[in-house]
Amino acid sequence: KGAIAAGADADLVVSDPETTRRMTVDSHYGPSGYNPYDGMDLVGWPVMTIRRGEIAVEDGAFRGKPGVGRFIARRPVGRTA
After folding, report:
1. For a designed S-S bond to 57, which of 24, 47, 49, 50 qualifies (C-beta 3.0 to 4.6 A apart)?
2. Per mean pLDDT, which of 25-29, 41-45, 68-72 is the most reliable?
3. Higher pLDDT residue, 70 or 19?
4. Contacts of 71 (CB under 8 A, 6+ apart)
5. Mean of pLDDT values over 44-49
6. Do 63 and 57 contact (CB within 8 A), yes or no?
7. How far, in Å, CA of 76 to CA of 4, rounded?
8. Integer angstrom CA distances of residue 28 from 9, 46, 63, 65, 70
9. Arithmetic mean of pLDDT over the chain
10. Are 26 and 71 in contact (CB under 8 A)?
């Protein structure tokens, strides 16, 4: 949608293609408590997320404004009803 230009409200993720990170259960896990990529080295890492033209996350730190956004209710994965 839209354009990447001054005054536009682009949604972007900026990645550093040179960064390498090792995935571990301690550093990257979800509610399951395990990581299927444990021990793998990943090349490339997001360093900035821009939402509607404003920096939301930079170098792993949240920079957004409290109260911006909206909750979208979802059903748990795997449920059909």
Report:
1. 49
2. 41-45
3. 19
4. none
5. 92
6. yes
7. 35
8. 30, 14, 21, 25, 25
9. 83
10. no
Rounded Cα distance, 31 and 49, in Å: 23
Sheet containing 54-58: which strands, arranged edge to edge? 12-22, 41-51, 54-58, 61-62
Report the candidate in 70, 68, 19 with the shortest Cα–Cα distance to residue 48: 19
């979800």: which residue's tokens?
30
Helix (H) or strand (E) holding 80: none
The amino acid at residue 7 is: G
Q: How far is CA 59 from the centre of its chain?
A: 11
Which token pair is 16? Answer: 């550093």
For residue 65, give both structure tokens.
Answer: 């404004």
Residues whose CB falls within 8 Å of the CB of residue 54, separated by 6 or more in sequence, listed in order: 64, 65
